[in-house]
Amino acid sequence: MVGSRKTGVEGVHIVTARRPGKPVRYYIYAWRGGPLVRSVIGGEKPAVTREDVIAIAEALEKAKPAPKDTIEGLIRQYRPNSPEWTKLERSTQQTWGRALDRVEERWGTVPLRLWNDPRMVTQVVKWRDEMASTPRAADIHVSMLQRLLEFGRLHGRVTVNVASSIPTLYRAAQRAEIIWTDEDFEAFNATANQSLRDVAALAALTGLRRADLIGLTWDEIGPQAIRRIAAKISRGKRRLVVMPVIPALHDLLADLKTRARKAEVNTVLVTSHGTPWTGNGLSGGFGKAVRDADIHHFDHDGSKRWKHLHDIRGTFATRLMTAPGERFTDSDIAKLMGWAPEQVSQIRNHYVDETAIVVALGERLAQAAVKRSVKR
User: Fold this and answer.
1) pLDDT one-digit tens code per residue, 55-103
2) Residue 356 CB: number of other CB atoms within 10 A?
């Protein structure tokens, strides 16, 4: 049985739900048909608290119609109507949603007609530079503004996209030269817990992205190959990932099957509690483990950058390039990894061909030294 009651605060709506054998439950809504503010289980009808009033005020503020001819109004149109937005993964929407909130905070009241002036690019660059201390966040915020303005341009709300060609600040936008070395794995395994070591090991033998690592289930693993629909959308669709189960991967999977897991958990990787990983949980835990193990990369200018879980994909690529008895082309590896052949070529040049040249030079020097000693 469900009923509703009015409260002493104008507009607030409380719904009472009673179920046989269950405690009564109260739902406090900002207004009839409005967002849920709080739910209460059991007891008497709850009174509206100061925190409830604050939450209701925030909901009312958000519900105010935004002027259609402003950035705020364009955002109201963008969220529910943009296919590029609605098809994003929920975790991706959370990341870009925070950036969209920052765009609204900074530019929400600015009329759209001003965005038709090419001189607005200088204002966007100034905003980007104000965030230079956090370059990755700065790039995400500017990129979100670019997506929003492009949506506006395609729908006739603005005539130009002034944010379309603003350079990024984050140097790690190109990380092809960053991979994990054997020394990195040794340092990581010496300090990280077992569940995180499992993540790194599976990444090194499959090259899967974070979302596919934590989403991979035992049902997707066959005797010879892993077959999984990738979580990442590429060129408007999800591609089928087919990954060969090499002997080393077969042994790792056998080991991973022994991990304690809660009933009905079918993911290959589990946390130390036997539950599936979440994206944010893995990123936070893995990042801390990387810093604890001091796993980093030095740029050519000597600056230091922490290595990421995603960089292990480069390690997998180099292992394919150097697999005994195999000759994978850049095109073969690119298809397997979902990369461009040029990106594979960059890794090959940096870590495989360059190393081979150094080794060859060393062998030639050693042979020359032997010849000189023989002549003496």
Assistant:
1) 888 777 676 666 789 999 999 899 888 888 887 777 678 788 889 999 9
2) 12
Spatial distance between the Cα atoms of 105 and 90, rounded to a whole number of angstroms: 22
Give bridge partners of residue 40 from the DSSP assignment.
Answer: 26
pTM above 0.85, yes or no: no
Closest CA to 9 of 23, 28, 24, 26: 28
Across the beta sheet with 2-6, the strand order is 2-6, 13-17, 25-29, 36-41
Longest distance between any two alpha carbons in the chain, whole Å: 106
pLDDT, position 340: 63
Can you tell me the mean pLDDT for 14-32?
84
Q: What's the pLDDT at 40? A: 87
The SS3 call for residue 353 is helix
| Residue 186 or 335, more confident | 186
Could you tell me how far CA 167 lies from the centroid of its own chain?
Answer: 21
CB 205 within 8 A of CB 249: yes
- Written in H, E and C, the secondary structure of 360-375 is HHHHHHHHHHHHHHHH
Residues 6+ away with beta carbon under 8 Å from 303 = none
Residue type, 305: R
> Is residue 245 packed enough to be buried (19+ CB in 10 Å), middle (13-18) or exposed (0-12)?
middle
CB 158 within 8 A of CB 116: yes
Q: Are 156 and 68 in contact (CB under 8 A)?
A: no
Task: Indicate the DSSP class of residue 49.
Answer: P
Percent of the chain with pLDDT over 90: 37
List, in sequence order, the alpha helices (H) in the chain.
50-63, 71-81, 83-86, 90-107, 120-130, 135-154, 182-191, 194-206, 210-215, 247-256, 279-293, 312-321, 330-337, 341-347, 354-375
Distance CA 13, CA 37 (A): 10
**Considering only CA atoms, which of 56, 51, 55, 28 is closest in space to residue 40?**
28
For 266-300, the pLDDT digits (tens) are 999 999 999 999 988 999 999 999 999 999 887 66
**What phi and psi values does residue 31 have, to the nearest 5 degrees?**
-165, 170
288-332 pLDDT, tens digit each: 999 999 998 876 666 678 899 988 987 887 777 776 655 777 777
